[in-house]
UniProtKB/TrEMBL annotation:
This is Type-4 uracil-DNA glycosylase. Keywords: 4Fe-4S, DNA damage, DNA repair, Hydrolase, Iron, Iron-sulfur, Metal-binding. The keyword Chaperone does not apply. Signal peptide: none annotated. It comes from Aminobacter carboxidus. Belongs to the uracil-DNA glycosylase (UDG) superfamily. Type 4 (UDGa) family. The keyword 4Fe-4S applies. The chain holds residues 278 to 481 of 483 of the full protein. Residues 38-198 form the Uracil-DNA glycosylase-like domain.
Amino acid sequence: PAAKQPAAAEAQSIDALRQKASQCRRCPLWSEATQTVFGEGPDDAELMFVGEQPGDQEDLQGRPFVGPAGKIFDAVLGEAGIDRTAVYVTNAVKHFKFEPRGKRRIHSKPNAGEVEACRWWLAQELKLVEPRLVVALGATAAQSLLDAPVAITRQRGQTIMRDDGLAVFLTIHPSYILRIRDPQDAGAERARFAEDIGIVRAMM
Ligand code: URA
C-alpha cells in the first residue's frame, strides 16, 4: 500500500517557509500590503522575539523591526548585550494593516481573526526554530502565543509556561514608548523596557 500522505506539507527550513508565506491568502490583509514580512534569524536561534505586525517601513523593506520601533528595539537589545543577528525576530501578523490618510498609511490593529489566521505561521516558525525562550512584545504577540487575553501592564516581566513547555516572557511593545508624549515618561518607560530585556538576557 502507498505510504500515507502527511496531513500538511510543512516546510523544512525558514527560507522554505518564507517562500510559502509570500503567497499567503489565509486572511485578506495580503491584498493591500506590499509584501509578506516574514520572520528572520537563524533556524536554531535560542531566543525568539515576536512583535505585533509589520509597520510602514517593514512593509516597504520586507523585514521585521526596521522602522522607528525597530530602532528602539535594536538599541535596547544592544544595551542588554544581545546580538540581533543571533536571535529570531518575527511578528504575530505578517502583513501590514493600515488605513490611508492622505499620503500616509496609519497602522491599524489586527483583529482576532487576523491574528488567529496568522498563528499557523508562527506555530511553524516555533516548530522549526525551537527556541529556549520567546519574548512577546506587547499584547497581540502575547495573545497569539498564549491563545488567551493578556494584560501586559500587569503581567509584564513574567514568564508564562505553555502546556507544550515553551517559555514566554511578557513585555511591552517598543512602539508603546513612541506614543508617550511626555519625554520624561517616555524615558522612564524606555528604561523599564531595557530592564525587561536585561532580565531576558540573564535568562539565556
Ligand atoms: N512593530 C511590530 O510589531 N513589528 C514590526 O516589525 C515593526 C513594528
